[in-house]
Structures are given as structure tokens and as C-alpha cells.
Write a structure and sequence with these properties.
Blueprint (H helix, E strand, L loop, with lengths): L4 H6 L7 E6 L2 E7 L4 H13 L1
Antiparallel strand pairs: 1-2
């Protein structure tokens, strides 16, 4: 975020870590804050099921 402030603003990143999941070029899920592996896997699987 500090190294790329323009990129952070473009993607609305205000906290680290931020994980954005995209589908067909659009953000469909955003996770803010530290997450464990099962939570990340679940979020990705949710998006893939759609």
C-alpha cells in the first residue's frame, strides 16, 4: 500500500491484508484482515460455485 498508493486507491485497499477475488474482471468477494487457510479456501470455493 505504501509502495503503490495509486494502485491501492484504484482498488480501494485501505487495510492490509486485503484479498480481492475477481470473476470475469469484476470483484465478487473481498476479505479484509488476517484469515486462516480454511476461510480463504471457503471464499474461493464460494466464488467458483457461482
Amino acid at each position: 500500500m505504501d509502495e503503490q498508493p495509486t494502485l491501492a486507491l484504484l482498488h480501494r485497499v485501505v487495510s492490509i491484508p486485503t484479498v480481492s477475488i475477481y470473476s470475469e474482471g469484476k470483484e465478487v468477494k473481498r476479505l479484509i484482515g488476517l484469515r486462516d487457510k480454511p476461510e480463504l479456501v471457503e471464499a474461493i470455493q464460494e466464488v467458483l460455485k457461482k
